[in-house]
């Protein structure tokens, strides 16, 4: 049983660990570093190594410099996804080019579920409100798709008739997606919320470029009404009331807009994103990106510059929001306070 804090006790915030204390680079026990998956805690991260046709998953302690073996796969691992509560890992491995094997384990490495999907590519969306549910989108080679709901608790898999492949959970029962028209390519699409059980749908916003559903916030990216060269980011609470907004320069691509990588940390109420220095064409843009944070708890507060001249690449906040995994393989880590980048892997 969890102890209930006394009324005047504040819940403990994650312990902040600064870059100076990190034990880096990681020394790999066996095989070659493939990529990092994410944070297990403020001081622990998960990474994948490859050795011939096999892959292994390890937990690394940033303070002790120790790697702990979690799981070995006989097939190359494509990806490892950490569950929202960080109690489970979803391992997507690939026995062949048209098969995806999904294995769900706990942090100790015990298998809870394993399922093979005939697919060319798989996309997962873990339900943060009910971790026993995961939506899996299976793509065939021609990019036709089928969405299934995996229920870990009852060990059952059911097909869902959804018209869009990229879905987010809005709450325990509702999902959201952008309703792109396949026959008429457009730059914006309506944002739809759908009840998974009975199929009822409602349009929440008419024209959105991209969106994200965080635990307590919905974020949309759209075109700024007053200036088409700017992208407008808007944040809404659960009642769809706008709580924060800002605009940044927009980069255009052949058939869409480039939305730079971003992340949100609930503990700090902080949103981080890469910001182009100016608007223009994404292919010819060479000025680099600024990494900026916004305090969403204070409407109208100005962005804070963390670093500039960076490449636009995936970022992921640590639980405390003080550090950031960075890079296409998450092989760098940024100490946000000291604004320093550390290499996780020695090439």
Question: What does this protein look like?
Answer:
The strands form eight sheets. The chain has a four-stranded antiparallel β-sheet with strand order 1-2-3-4, with no helix packed on it. Mean pLDDT is 93; it is low at 1-11. It is 0% helix and 52% strand. The protein starts with 31 loop residues before the first strand and ends with a strand. It has 347 residues and is mainly beta. It is built from no helices and 31 strands. The radius of gyration is 21 Å and the shape is globular. Among the domains are: 172-208, no CATH class; 214-312, no CATH class.
The counted number of beta strands is 31
CA-CA gap between termini: 46 Å
- Helical content, roughly? under 10%
Shape summary: globular
Mean pLDDT: 93
Strand order of the largest sheet: 1-2-3-4
Oligomer: single chain
Q: Count of helices?
A: 0
> From the helix content, strand content and strand pairing, which structural class follows?
mainly beta
Uncertain segments of ≥5 residues (pLDDT<50)?
A: 1-11
| Beta-strand proportion | over 45%
Rg of Cα set: 21 Å
Largest sheet: 4 strands, antiparallel
Keywords:
347 residues, 4-stranded antiparallel beta sheet, globular, disordered N terminus, single chain, 0% helix, mainly beta
Short description:
The protein is mainly beta and 347 residues long. The protein contains no helices and 31 strands. Among the domains are: 37 residues, no CATH class; 99 residues, no CATH class.
């Amino acid at each position: 049983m969890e102890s209930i804090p006394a009324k005047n006790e504040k819940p403990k915030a994650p312990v902040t660990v600064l870059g100076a204390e990190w034990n880096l680079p990681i020394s790999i026990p066996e095989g070659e570093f493939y990529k990092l998956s994410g944070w297990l805690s403020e001081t622990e991260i998960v990474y994948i190594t490859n050795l011939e046709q096999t892959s292994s998953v390890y937990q690394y302690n940033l303070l002790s410099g120790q790697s702990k073996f979690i799981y070995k796969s006989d097939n190359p691992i494509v990806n490892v996804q950490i569950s929202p509560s960080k109690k489970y890992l979803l391992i997507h491995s690939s026995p062949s080019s048209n098969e995806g094997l999904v294995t769900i384990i706990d942090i100790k490495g015990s298998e809870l579920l394993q399922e093979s999907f005939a697919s060319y590519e798989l996309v997962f969306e873990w339900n943060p409100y009910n971790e026993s549910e995961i939506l899996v989108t299976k793509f065939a080679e021609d990019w036709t798709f089928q969405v299934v709901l995996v229920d870990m608790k009852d060990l059952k898999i059911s097909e869902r008739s959804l018209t869009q492949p990229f879905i987010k959970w809005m709450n325990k029962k509702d999902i959201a997606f952008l309703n792109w028209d396949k026959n008429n390519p457009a730059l914006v699409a309506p944002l739809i919320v759908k009840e998974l059980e009975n199929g009822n749908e409602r349009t929440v916003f008419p024209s959105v470029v991209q969106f994200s559903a965080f635990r307590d916030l919905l974020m949309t990216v759209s075109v700024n009404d007053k200036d088409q060269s700017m992208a407008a980011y808007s944040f809404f609470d659960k009642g769809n009331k706008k709580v924060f907004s800002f605009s940044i320069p927009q980069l255009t691509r052949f058939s869409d807009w480039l939305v730079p990588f971003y992340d949100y940390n609930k503990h700090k109420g902080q949103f981080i994103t890469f910001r182009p220095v100016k608007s223009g064409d994404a292919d010819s843009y060479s000025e680099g990106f600024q990494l900026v944070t916004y305090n969403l708890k204070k409407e109208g507060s100005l962005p804070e510059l963390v670093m500039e001249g960076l490449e636009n690449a995936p970022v992921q906040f640590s639980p405390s929001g003080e550090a950031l995994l960075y890079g296409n393989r998450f092989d760098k880590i940024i100490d946000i306070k000291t604004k320093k980048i550390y290499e996780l892997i020695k090439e």
